[in-house]
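Need residues for this backbone.
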């Protein structure tokens, strides 16, 4: 479980393909603090640390993960947002993020707002029932509040700190991002789908 508050950026150093899996060596300022078998969010995807070498660590994504996220597009030089799992004795500054990506979105527009940025994304409309105005979303692992919600687009406002400390600063129109919808909304939607009282 994560909060969507990014701790650091990591740089992909190497991509290794083995069958339908892809393993990644990444370098970050906190890699040497990880432990083997630890869960770490990488652009919103929960991955298990398999090996550590000084300021580098290795993780592997299986086919299911590659198909539902943007990890299949990672290459050497890609910058990734990372966050260690939630400590239960700390504050929950974002929202509950599982690290289980639901789908991807596409960046449609970036507007500079004289001190902040407004980003608009498209997403598959089959997920529209999970999107509410002023609700929470995890975008590349970042906890954000959504607005201007339509059946297939939404916007987020980015403050300077978030812009400068995540890979948002590298994003361009057409880029693909990982989206995880609010877990509470998903449970409610599932209960309604099954015709059960909440």
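Answer:
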């Amino acid at each position: 479980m994560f909060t969507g508050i990014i701790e650091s950026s990591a740089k992909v150093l190497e991509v290794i393909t083995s069958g339908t899996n892809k393993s990644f060596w990444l370098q970050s300022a906190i890699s040497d603090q990880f432990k083997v078998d630890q869960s770490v969010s990488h652009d919103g995807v929960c991955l298990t640390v398999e090996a550590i070498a000084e300021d580098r660590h290795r993780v592997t994504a299986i086919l299911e993960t590659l198909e539902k996220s943007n990890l299949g597009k990672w290459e050497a030089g890609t910058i990734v947002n990372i966050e260690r799992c939630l400590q239960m004795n700390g504050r929950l500054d974002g929202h509950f993020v599982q690290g289980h990506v639901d789908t991807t979105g596409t960046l449609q527009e970036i507007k500079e707002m004289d001190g902040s940025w407004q980003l608009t994304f498209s997403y598959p409309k089959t997920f529209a029932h999970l999107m509410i105005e002023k609700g929470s979303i995890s975008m590349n692992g970042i906890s954000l509040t959504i607005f201007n919600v339509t059946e297939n687009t939404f916007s987020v406002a980015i403050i300077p700190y978030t812009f400068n400390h995540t890979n948002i600063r590298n994003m361009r129109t057409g880029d693909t991002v990982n989206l995880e919808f609010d877990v509470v909304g998903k449970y409610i939607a599932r209960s309604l789908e099954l015709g059960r009282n909440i």
